[in-house]
Amino acid sequence: MAEAQNSPTLESARAGGPLPVGSTTAGSIAVAAESTVATRMSAPPSFDVTDFPVPHGREEEWRFTPLERLRGLHDGTAVATGEGVKVDVQAPEGVTVETVGRDDARLGKAGTPVDRVAAQAYSAFEKAGVVTVPKETVLTEPIRIAVHGEGGVAFGHQVIELGAFAEAVVVIDHTGDAVLAGNVEYILGDGAKLTVVSVQDWDEKAVHVAQHNALVGRDASFRSVVVTFGGDVVRLHPRVSYAGTGGEAELFGLYFTDAGQHQEHRLLVDHNTPHCKSNVAYKGALQGDDAHAVWIGDVLIEAKAEGTDTYEMNRNLVLTDGARVDSVPNLEIETGEIVGAGHASATGRFDDEQLFYLMARGIPEHEARRLVVRGFFAELVQQIGVADIEERLIAKIEEELEASVA
Amino acid sequence: MATLEIRDLHVTVEADNSTKEILKGVDLTVKQGETHAIMGPNGSGKSTLAYSLAGHPKYTITGGTVTLDGEDVLEMSVDERARAGLFLAMQYPVEVPGVSVSNFLRTSATAIRGEAPKLRTWVKEVKEAMERLNMDPSFAERNVNEGFSGGEKKRHEILQLELLKPKVAILDETDSGLDVDALRVVSEGVNRVRETGEVGTLLITHYTRILRYIKPDHVHVFSAGRIVESGGAELADKLEEEGYEGYTKGGASE
Question: Taking CB atoms and an 8 Å cutoff, what residues of chain A touch B99?
Answer without folding.
Answer: 371-372, 375
